[in-house]
Amino acid sequence: MILADTALRYDEQRLLEVSAAYRAAEREFNESCQAIVAYNRAGNFDRRYAVQPDGVVARINAMDMDPARKSLESVRDRCLRERNRLLAERAELMKTLRLIR
Prior knowledge:
The chain is mainly alpha-helical. It has helices spanning about 1-40, 60-65, 65-95; strands spanning about 50, 55-60.
């Protein structure tokens, strides 16, 4: 019984830690998305496009021609991976504590 209580308290404490880290990661991810939107609005990128046969418009060599945007998107992708990892860990802890199914 004591071991079960200790494990439960550990899971509860870990859930608090992971939830706080998740909120911070979510905030960081949102800020990285906003940075990309601001960069796009500033219009500082190469505007060469190609129209595909099915009518889809795509930028030509988008990441190679725009290292600043490539850097911004790299940060966003890293933030997204961390956010998703914490979200999955949080969900598992909540299942363990029977807060969700």
